Amino acid sequence: MAEDFKVTPWEVTGDIDYDVLMKRFGTTPIDEAMIKRIAKYGEVHPMLRRGIFYSHRDLGWLLDEYDKGNRFYLYTGRGPSGNTHLGHMMPWIFNKWVQDTFKVKMIFQMTDDEKFLFKDLTLHDTRDMAYENALDFVALGFDPDNTKIIVDTENIDRLYPIALRVAKKVTFSTAKDVFGFEGSSNIGKIFFTTLESAPAFLPSEIEGRPTPVVVPCGIDQDPHFRVTRDVAPGLGYPKPSMLYCKMCPSLNGGDKMSSSDEMATIYTTDTPKQVKKKVGRAFTGGCVSVEEQREKGGNPEVCAVFKYNYYLFEHDDAKLNEMAEKCRNGEILCGECKVALTSKINVFLEAHQAKREEAKEIVQKMAFDGFKW
Amino acid sequence: MAEDFKVTPWEVTGDIDYDVLMKRFGTTPIDEAMIKRIAKYGEVHPMLRRGIFYSHRDLGWLLDEYDKGNRFYLYTGRGPSGNTHLGHMMPWIFNKWVQDTFKVKMIFQMTDDEKFLFKDLTLHDTRDMAYENALDFVALGFDPDNTKIIVDTENIDRLYPIALRVAKKVTFSTAKDVFGFEGSSNIGKIFFTTLESAPAFLPSEIEGRPTPVVVPCGIDQDPHFRVTRDVAPGLGYPKPSMLYCKMCPSLNGGDKMSSSDEMATIYTTDTPKQVKKKVGRAFTGGCVSVEEQREKGGNPEVCAVFKYNYYLFEHDDAKLNEMAEKCRNGEILCGECKVALTSKINVFLEAHQAKREEAKEIVQKMAFDGFKW
Fold first, then answer.
1. Is A188 in Cβ contact with B191 (below 8 Å)?
2. Do B176 and A194 lie within an 8 Å CB cutoff?
3. pLDDT one-digit tens code per residue, B63-76
């Protein structure tokens, strides 16, 4: 049953076995030796220590180049199909850490074309969402002098010539094998992967020399980057290195926070009351009665509230372990954990929402080629 | 054997039966009634009278709209894969007549992306060729105030949002059926048709209201426009009307002038000496000996030299008929016809080459959205 799940850029179903997925995709685990190496550059981010960013491609090569003075670009993105939730923010938070630690330039891509092609949305919808999502990205404090936001339909003049060169090297058979397209797939979907490849090669175009790139993102994006990496040498670009994270879990206990279950999803614009209500309904590892839980203890392994601390809200390992221990011993009850998490999320969101307002002033500065929102 | 030919936007093989092709594509003949109607707007162009522009889609509707005051745009284009030859110029000459007769705006598209994707050429190659080809187009004297040249990679910002909307409505199965793509086709080829659709809808975008468009072009382009017309209503645009011409014959007697046989192809930059040499080698309908021809006469039906007069260089029907008659009677010999045609072509090219030089000053003014060459 471990194989009974599906992870593509557009669909995640079933219980994901991340080790099986890594083998399926052929990516490399981020092991202790790699984490030790990363520690030389700065304090290791909890998402690395905790195996949330857990797999990579050619990360060692990227660091070798960095050590030689060949500074990389960061590249990640977002498909703007709705409001930003914490699951979207998770890899961005990690990207911010990479930018701060390595002092590197960053490209953030908004694939408004993708979401138009794959969802029942207009280009107007996806453009508006790109703006709203960008505010959340900017609010995380990326360096405005070294970060550029690309919106596909706005910056297509820069992306299209690269996308064409990628397209010429990818056959329909390959796209079909990698993404599972069918006869009924629209021809925009089939071409789209070239637009996700393009920003990986843009730094080499900007710098006028082969420039390393690392893409920290959800492992569901690996199909795109398998294609990107396959075509890179033939186009004279370095293969982008990859840093893959697991999906941010849902409050309902599922593997992926998703807008398809709004009550199990914390949006960046949620009010304290909404957060309280959503966390209050979260799936936990508790027992049916207080008495039973006091006696038998809870199970943090399956608890969405614990996972939120693990993934995002408790960076202190000692405190996290204590939390798990107390749960297992029956010393704390689900209600207490929910109150504590609600408070942490609301503290985070209050500050984020203020920065999100400030972002409205900054976002234009980050627009690639100075496009107008 | 009438079916033993193939006409696609990228390949023309076998002896084309244009009546069969019209039935195969489902287009409508331009009949006497239609030519009479066109005569109301001005002198009917020889290419219409002589059945070179011989088939259409919704031309009656276009004229109805014109009569109501709903002026159409002209749209045609060129895939810049090499130097311009007379076969490319033929439909442009007709477009110029349409612009002059109906006093309408025109969009001319350079599909440099297409030629990159379908040929062994770089984007740099196809861009350079787009410029060279544009000089020939401009030299024909299109109204600089009402004519805009689009180069796909330069004006992709305007075309891409329309192309995406087209792409969302075209499945791979449709593209495969219409164009014959295979698993080995690159994914750029599969997407490309959306870029040829986009300029048909651009006038409606520019004018802010549904705007009729007519596309006079080779009938080999019909597959693209079947797709374009199929998706138009769903996108809120009028279906473009079509005016289709036969392929310009080759000097070697074949159905299509093509750069694959350079000696049978007159380029716009050819010298008088080159033209003389090429016409001198042309396939004719003559007999093996002068004596035999004087006695039996020649066959203008199969003669490339006669066809060049018919298609391009003798607008006077009486003179053309006299030419055919004298050939059949053995009154004139192939050598004489060749000398006469060489002279006509060289007179045309001398003037054209001068206007082509002047075009270097004008072409920038016609660049859509003011891109730089």
1. yes
2. no
3. 999 999 999 999 99
